[in-house]
Write a structure and sequence with these properties.
about 20% helix, alpha+beta, 1 helix
């Protein structure tokens, strides 16, 4: 059985809360890859950040958790004074069969 039975691309926006009452929140758009492993758990990863991944028992739980992890990554970047990385566009995922 292959490692990932189901692979999905998920794109969503994260809003940073304003630091001052007159500021508008900053919107970030990230792509997330969600896979289902051999044990049935859903594993979500955001390739824009190193080591930005999580898992959940359901697809929805994994997506909710990866949003939380991305927010933590953004706060860590802010604390260190670094810029939000620009992610390379994920064009698609294709399943191919190789006969040996």
């Amino acid at each position: 059985m292959p490692l990932a039975r189901r692979i999905c691309l998920y794109r969503f926006a994260i809003l940073d809360p304003p630091t001052l009452s007159h500021e508008m929140p900053m919107k970030h758009l990230f792509q997330v890859i969600v896979e289902q492993d051999e044990e049935g758990r859903f594993v979500a990863e955001c390739p824009a950040f190193k080591a930005c991944y999580t898992q959940g028992k359901t697809y929805e739980e994994a997506v909710a958790r990866i949003k939380d992890v991305i927010v933590m990554c953004l706060h860590e970047l802010e604390k260190k004074g670094r810029k939000v990385p620009r992610q390379t566009e994920i064009i698609g995922v294709k399943r191919i069969e190789i006969a040996r």
